[in-house]
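Researcher: Let's try something more involved. This one mixes different molecule types, so please make sure each is placed in the same coordinate frame as the others.
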Amino acid sequence: MKQPNISGAFWREIERIRKRPRYLAISLFLLVFSYVFFITLMDEGQPQKLPIAIVDEDGSYFSRRLTHEINTMQGVEVVAVYTNHSEARRAMQRSEIYAFMDIPEGTYNEVLTFRRPHIAFYTNNAYLMAGSLSYRSLLTIANLASGAVQREILRKKGFDENTIMGLIQPIAIEARSIGNPNANYESYLLTTILPGVLGLLLLMLTTYVIGIEMKERTSRQWLHSAGNSLAAALIGKLLPYFLIFTLLGILGDIILFGFLHYPMDGSQLIVILSTLLYLTATQAISVLIIGALPSLRLALSVSALYGVMSFSLSGFTYPVSQMFTALQGIVNLFPLRHYYQIYITNAMYATGGWQLLRPMLALSLFAILPLFVYKRLHKALIYLNYPQK
Amino acid sequence: MKKHSLRQNMAEIRQVFMKEIRGVFNDNGVILIFIVAGLLYPILYNLIYYDENVCELPVAVVDDARCDASCRFIHKIDATPEIDLRYECANMEEAKTLMRHRKINGIIYFPRDYGTKLAKLEQTKVMVFCDMSSFLYYRSILLGSNHAMLDELKHIELVRYNATGIEGEAAQQLVTPVRYDEINMFCPTGGYSSFLIPAILVMIVHQTLLLGVSVRYGTENEERKKRMEEGVFNTTVGRALAYFIIYAIVAAFDLVAVPRMFNLPHIGNPWELCQFIPPFLLATIFFSMTIGAFIRKRETGILTMISLSLIFLFISGVAWPTPNIPIVWRYLSYLIPSTHGMHGYIRINSMGASIRDIPFEYISLWAQAIIYFITACLSLKYANRRYNYASIDKKVVSLPNPSEA
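Model: All components are placed in one shared frame. Result:
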């Protein structure tokens, strides 16, 4: 009986990577590309100067003034002034603009004669983000317009400036966004998307490196190198990838929180720890998949289909509480979900306790998954009794 | 190259077509991607993005002012569809603890001098703290509290004008000298699923097709033993026809039936969709076939293409507005069929546009279909020459004897 030999499997894997670096190289390239892509894409943090239009049927001092005021807002930019409604609507359908404000004929006249005119603004919600951002700007302008008229009238009635301000804007809301003071969309998305890509690539790569041993019928050689212990063989084989991805994951954390200064109120140590746990859990799932379906073809397809789901199911864009009830438990089967919860608790609220411990515990629990398929995988590796074609 | 008669060519295309259909249905991995993912994912995504709107979010209120005015405001906030004032806390500490335990998504705080400042006719502030773990929380809480604030504002103004002796219609005229209507076009509820799922549906068709075809080509390149007997042109046409027929069904289900099943926006004319879907499918098929020929092994395809899904989604300008995408990425996105597919589909399906309203997308897709058809032929020719190596690559690996082990 030979001793379990982790280092045997480890060095064998290093040798395999050296001989055929293609898959690792592709994964690393995609990872770097994703980081560069997403970081350069959302440079602005929040989209600015969204194109909108004005339908100016009034053509008055008032409508020109309003157009001018809209242009001073950071979020939107008036790219066109139309003279009728249907032109603007067509521009919206062509997606040249995300919103427009309609100032009907005679508006200024009605203002002057106290007939309380109607203006309208239209936003395109088929593009939700652009639509709701321009909505916010136009809502502010619409209210400011009333305020400006009020001020003029009150001045003429002989009120002093202080009284006027108290009269026309008695309450203001001061919004504080906890854990993301500038409401930066980039830091909100990327702190979960990029670790998600890291996990997805590791998931695929791990499934591949185990499966390929069966496909190329080298699995006995592999077991042999680890002293015929599957546990040692798995640890030795997966360790190089774990180390590389952990290193890159931590480098990614340094880029996000160090160089790009994404909000981080908690402990850096927990960020690193959660990255470690997250990657372990990801590899454990790969082993589970390839163990349950010891055929590289099928296992890779399943890994891919499982992997892409994790982005939506982690609940970082769309809250889990709003999902279909039966799905709300299933989200726990995705490591990214727990990683995201650790991030929220640690980086945004800087708290510990059960809120932090629970997802960490959950991630650790993933590590026992390979035990469920241990025997099945072992047999498959020895007898190669599953079709590889 | 041998000259064939039209009839012989047709026969060859039919042969390739039948072979490809058989090939797809004999490969579990491809079936899983084409059929299972292609048909089940749309349903799954509808279950994920299940509720249209994030509403009745649990929020705590800390009322240090304890006056009539703050009470009235609190009731108004509670009455908005977005916010449910579930907790009333004695102080900020208590509310923060609730927030840390993720029991609430926001805190609304009335400072002690809220009432007195109002009485002194000074401007007074209300603080709203938002949970930023999801932007949908932030959006809903701000929307709800802002609408309540605007209503309260008008109430206070009215009372004040009354006090200065301006009453009735005159006061109304002062409070809102300019009235406004807000109209949410194309998606009146402003819901998240109505916005995102149409884009995801196009993405599912695009990505499953791309993955499946790359897997088919990767497998072929890996197992190729000799040159193909059929001509490159006929092979490209025959295979594309096979994918097109399978995907006509998948796309009809995903892009036409699913929005109707799940009550997503579907104001588009089905006839317009029928004109739009074929060029999208053809562009995607030939795009996939062009890439496929460069994939040496079955596994490479799936590994590469799956992680590109998110990039394709974000580069398209649906999630992040097109004008704000850096120019390099924007031009790059024009090369990918899913970009035009998503924009065209959203405009027809969700915004009721006709083909004439989307000339850029429609023409781009046809142009892609033609160009990628040519490149698909060329790259198949390349693959046919390049991967003729099966005989030398067949290394026999000696296995240790199990009895030794």
